[in-house]
């Protein structure tokens, strides 16, 4: 079975090694996360109203935070913000397709750009998408599903103290959880349907058990305890269907 | 005359085909979860005992103008406001109120100055979130504190189990169990709330709705024709059908984008940013009807600036 090694929170480590591209969604932004991710990112994009949040949170230094493009149907971006970034020569890409969300469309353009510019990228990181309107949070998860067919690259979504990452089926995932930014909790959520799951490295592991809403969902899980000063073991996960990994982020780095 | 100050809040009337009358008197039980509370929603859902001599009224359908206007006294937080009502009047009474663990902290804070008027019937959980101060306060006020150490089930599920038992024990006539909180904060806990909605299908016949911020979530049972009233005036712009547990063969009417016996499934088709079938200006929206062969999550926006 193919093994995939991945450290979900490497992207938030200033000393992390992943080369990332950044998508910003229409949600309030955390300044620290934005600055860390922005500085590492090879490409940066806003989905529609995300540009409003970017504009506000970079007040006084917007010139240092110009996205490569802003895409969407432009029903959320304000006229003022749109004019500002247009004048700064950011690409504005109107995507009128009503079937797909702004997030999915923004991701499609990102994937194309990465290919076009032949960039070496490890991870596509998204800020926002896990809070606000409940249907839009679920739509973000749907985009994670679509992403499995759009790109080989891992797509992680971060907002507040939560990270979400959809695990591909039929690979042995090996997740590094020693950045020091991991919060207390982690979880495996069978959002699309039942997942036959096997794990190691968790406090409550799954032994080829089926995760399924109504029967068994792993929430408020945590990492296998280790001796004081020792590194945590990686978390390994195999699943026969796409399975959502979600973990806490604790920015008070230990 | 428009009411001022506190706004009424009402869970949409929920009926199934077997009930031919719209239920306009909602008797609810209230569960509060460990999330920041909206004061308006809390006060409206908490309400006062009818025995106090006041009628507590919650906003309902504006209908076709105030053909029968009753000024009723709405017991507000600090003032008494008058509120005109149209023909279909709705009374919402919380018969029982409970906090799940740290929810008690939020309740204590948001009712500062009048905690005595907002004493829950019980606080349950493993008590790892409630502060010592808050726990002592409610203990001293004789609220029941029920420690539930079961690590397999969440505080929400355990709180619900106790609620269901109490409703039975007291033989209460209840229409809906309403939960405040559960849809924001830690992502795994939001998903755990959805899991509780699944468990609830086997724990009680009563509908369980979860509200936080501008979102409501309600898990639709399979193999029934659901008829959702969406004319309270509190509905936001959006609604959605989310096949969280697995594929759902779905049929709807009353939506802008209906499903015609189509399968909703993550990775293939999920209905988000949907909305209601447009109607002529001044007309009532048609009810939304939904059938599904598996439990299907209905989620809708709440807009508290009543139109």
From TrEMBL, chain A:
GO cellular component: cytosol
InterPro entries registered for this protein in UniProt: Thi_PPkinase (IPR006282), Thiamin_pyrophosphokinase_euk (IPR016966), Thiamin_PyroPKinase_B1-bd (IPR007373), TPK_B1-bd_sf (IPR036371), TPK_catalytic (IPR007371), TPK_catalytic_sf (IPR036759)
Source taxon at top rank: Eukaryota
Reactions catalysed, as given in the entry: thiamine + UTP = thiamine diphosphate + UMP + H(+)
Coiled-coil segments: none
Thiamin pyrophosphokinase thiamin-binding domain: residues covered: 180-243
Biological-process GO terms, alphabetical: thiamine diphosphate biosynthetic process; thiamine metabolic process
The entry's keywords: ATP-binding, Kinase, Nucleotide-binding, Transferase
Enzyme class: transferase
CDD domains found in the cross-reference section: TPK
EC annotation from Swiss-Prot or TrEMBL: 2.7.6.2
Chloroplast listed as a keyword: no
Example of a GO MF term: ATP binding
Pathway: Cofactor biosynthesis; thiamine diphosphate biosynthesis; thiamine diphosphate from thiamine: step 1/1
Record's subunit section: Homodimer.
Function: Catalyzes the phosphorylation of thiamine to thiamine pyrophosphate (TPP) utilizing UTP and therefore links the biosynthesis of TPP to pyrimidines metabolism. By producing thiamine pyrophosphate, a cofactor of the mitochondrial pyruvate dehydrogenase indirectly regulates pyruvate oxidation and lipogenesis. Although it can also catalyze thiamine phosphorylation using ATP and CTP in vitro, it does so with significantly lower efficiency and without physiological relevance evidence.
Family: Belongs to the thiamine pyrophosphokinase family.
Name this polypeptide is given: Thiamine pyrophosphokinase
Provenance organism: Oncorhynchus kisutch (Coho salmon)
Gene that specifies this protein: TPK1
UniProtKB/TrEMBL annotation, chain B:
Residues in Thiamin pyrophosphokinase thiamin-binding domain copies: 233-296
One Pfam family it belongs to: TPK_catalytic
Reaction(s) catalysed by this chain's protein: thiamine + UTP = thiamine diphosphate + UMP + H(+)
Record's GO cellular component terms: cytosol
Subunit structure: Homodimer.
InterPro entries, per the entry: Thi_PPkinase (IPR006282), Thiamin_pyrophosphokinase_euk (IPR016966), Thiamin_PyroPKinase_B1-bd (IPR007373), TPK_B1-bd_sf (IPR036371), TPK_catalytic (IPR007371), TPK_catalytic_sf (IPR036759)
GO molecular function: ATP binding; kinase activity; thiamine binding; thiamine diphosphokinase activity
Function in brief: Catalyzes the phosphorylation of thiamine to thiamine pyrophosphate (TPP) utilizing UTP and therefore links the biosynthesis of TPP to pyrimidines metabolism. By producing thiamine pyrophosphate, a cofactor of the mitochondrial pyruvate dehydrogenase indirectly regulates pyruvate oxidation and lipogenesis. Although it can also catalyze thiamine phosphorylation using ATP and CTP in vitro, it does so with significantly lower efficiency and without physiological relevance evidence.
Pathway: Cofactor biosynthesis; thiamine diphosphate biosynthesis; thiamine diphosphate from thiamine: step 1/1
Keywords per UniProt: ATP-binding, Kinase, Nucleotide-binding, Transferase
Protein name in the entry: Thiamine pyrophosphokinase
Its EC number(s): 2.7.6.2
Family the UniProt entry places it in: Belongs to the thiamine pyrophosphokinase family.
Lineage: Eukaryota, Metazoa, Chordata, Craniata, Vertebrata
GO BP annotations listed: thiamine diphosphate biosynthetic process; thiamine metabolic process
């Amino acid at each position: 079975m193919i093994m995939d090694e991945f450290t979900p929170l490497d992207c938030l480590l200033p000393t992390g090694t992943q080369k990332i591209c950044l998508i910003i969604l229409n949600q309030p932004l955390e300044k620290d996360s934005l600055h860390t991710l922005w500085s590492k990112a090879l490409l940066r994009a806003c989905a529609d109203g995300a540009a409003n949040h970017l504009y506000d949170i970079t007040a006084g230094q917007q010139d240092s935070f110009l996205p490569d493009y802003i895409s969407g149907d432009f029903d959320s971006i304000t006229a003022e913000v749109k004019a500002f970034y247009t004048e700064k020569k950011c690409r504005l890409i109107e995507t009128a397709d009503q079937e797909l969300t702004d997030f999915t469309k923004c991701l499609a353009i990102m994937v194309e750009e990465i290919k076009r510019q032949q960039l070496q990228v490890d991870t596509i990181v998204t800020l926002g998408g896990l809070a606000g309107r409940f249907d839009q949070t679920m739509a973000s998860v749907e985009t994670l599903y679509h992403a499995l067919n759009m790109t080989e690259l891992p797509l992680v979504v971060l907002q507040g103290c939560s990270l979400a990452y959809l695990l591909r089926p039929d690979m042995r995932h090996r997740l590094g959880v020693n950045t020091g930014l991991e919060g207390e909790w982690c979880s495996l959520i069978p959002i699309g349907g039942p997942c036959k799951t096997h794990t190691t490295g968790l406090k409550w592991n799954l032994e080829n058990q089926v995760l399924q809403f109504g029967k068994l969902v792993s929430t408020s899980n945590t990492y296998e305890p280790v001796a004081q000063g020792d590194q945590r073991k990686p978390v390994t996960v195999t699943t026969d269907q796409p399975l959502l990994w979600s973990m806490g982020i604790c920015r008070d780095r230990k």
